[in-house]
Amino acid sequence: MDARSSGHQLRKYAMSVSEYNFLTYGLDGMAVLYSVGTNDCIAFVIPHHHMDLGIQTAVASPLNTYIISLGQDGSLICTYLG
After folding, report:
1. Domains of the chain by residue range
2. Is 2.40.50 the CATH classification of the domain at 13-80?
3. Is 48 exposed, middle or buried (0-12, 13-18, 19+ CB in 10 A)?
4. Does position 66 have pLDDT exceeding 90, yes or no?
5. What is the mean pLDDT of the segment spanning 60-68?
6. What is the mean pLDDT of the chain?
Protein backbone atom coordinates (compact mmCIF):
# COMPACT_ATOMS: atom_id res chain seq x y z
CA MET A 1 0.00 0.00 0.00
CA ASP A 2 1.35 3.42 -0.86
CA ALA A 3 1.04 6.65 1.12
CA ARG A 4 -2.60 7.28 0.22
CA SER A 5 -5.37 7.13 2.79
CA SER A 6 -6.34 3.71 4.10
CA GLY A 7 -10.01 4.61 4.47
CA HIS A 8 -10.00 3.85 8.19
CA GLN A 9 -11.33 6.34 10.70
CA LEU A 10 -8.89 5.40 13.48
CA ARG A 11 -5.13 5.24 13.17
CA LYS A 12 -4.59 1.78 14.57
CA TYR A 13 -5.28 -0.88 11.97
CA ALA A 14 -3.69 -4.17 10.91
CA MET A 15 -3.15 -5.96 7.61
CA SER A 16 -3.71 -9.49 6.37
CA VAL A 17 -1.66 -10.15 3.23
CA SER A 18 -1.86 -13.07 0.79
CA GLU A 19 -0.76 -13.67 -2.78
CA TYR A 20 -4.31 -12.84 -3.96
CA ASN A 21 -5.27 -9.76 -1.95
CA PHE A 22 -4.57 -7.72 1.13
CA LEU A 23 -7.02 -6.70 3.79
CA THR A 24 -6.84 -3.90 6.34
CA TYR A 25 -8.98 -4.01 9.48
CA GLY A 26 -9.03 -2.25 12.79
CA LEU A 27 -10.60 -0.87 15.94
CA ASP A 28 -13.07 1.18 13.89
CA GLY A 29 -14.81 -2.07 12.84
CA MET A 30 -14.03 -1.59 9.15
CA ALA A 31 -12.45 -4.07 6.76
CA VAL A 32 -11.09 -2.84 3.43
CA LEU A 33 -10.06 -5.37 0.77
CA TYR A 34 -7.50 -4.41 -1.89
CA SER A 35 -6.21 -6.07 -5.05
CA VAL A 36 -2.54 -7.07 -4.85
CA GLY A 37 -1.63 -6.12 -8.42
CA THR A 38 -3.36 -2.75 -8.73
CA ASN A 39 -3.91 -1.67 -5.09
CA ASP A 40 -7.52 -0.91 -6.03
CA CYS A 41 -10.17 -1.15 -3.34
CA ILE A 42 -12.30 -4.24 -4.02
CA ALA A 43 -14.62 -4.01 -1.00
CA PHE A 44 -15.29 -1.84 2.03
CA VAL A 45 -17.41 -3.37 4.81
CA ILE A 46 -18.19 -2.57 8.45
CA PRO A 47 -18.95 -5.96 10.06
CA HIS A 48 -18.23 -4.87 13.66
CA HIS A 49 -18.99 -1.79 15.75
CA HIS A 50 -16.26 0.51 16.99
CA MET A 51 -17.91 0.69 20.43
CA ASP A 52 -17.20 -3.06 20.75
CA LEU A 53 -13.53 -2.32 19.90
CA GLY A 54 -13.82 -3.39 16.27
CA ILE A 55 -12.01 -6.27 14.61
CA GLN A 56 -9.40 -8.49 16.28
CA THR A 57 -8.39 -10.38 13.13
CA ALA A 58 -9.72 -10.93 9.61
CA VAL A 59 -8.98 -12.85 6.39
CA ALA A 60 -10.34 -12.75 2.85
CA SER A 61 -10.99 -15.68 0.53
CA PRO A 62 -8.61 -16.15 -2.44
CA LEU A 63 -11.43 -15.37 -4.90
CA ASN A 64 -12.36 -12.15 -3.05
CA THR A 65 -15.88 -13.39 -2.35
CA TYR A 66 -15.83 -13.55 1.47
CA ILE A 67 -14.32 -11.68 4.40
CA ILE A 68 -14.26 -13.57 7.70
CA SER A 69 -13.69 -11.39 10.74
CA LEU A 70 -13.39 -11.99 14.46
CA GLY A 71 -14.49 -9.10 16.63
CA GLN A 72 -12.86 -8.06 19.87
CA ASP A 73 -16.13 -9.09 21.55
CA GLY A 74 -15.78 -12.67 20.25
CA SER A 75 -18.33 -12.44 17.43
CA LEU A 76 -17.36 -14.24 14.21
CA ILE A 77 -18.84 -12.77 11.02
CA CYS A 78 -18.61 -13.96 7.42
CA THR A 79 -19.44 -11.22 4.90
CA TYR A 80 -20.37 -12.29 1.34
CA LEU A 81 -19.09 -9.78 -1.20
CA GLY A 82 -21.08 -11.16 -4.12
Report:
1. 13-80
2. no
3. buried
4. yes
5. 95
6. 87
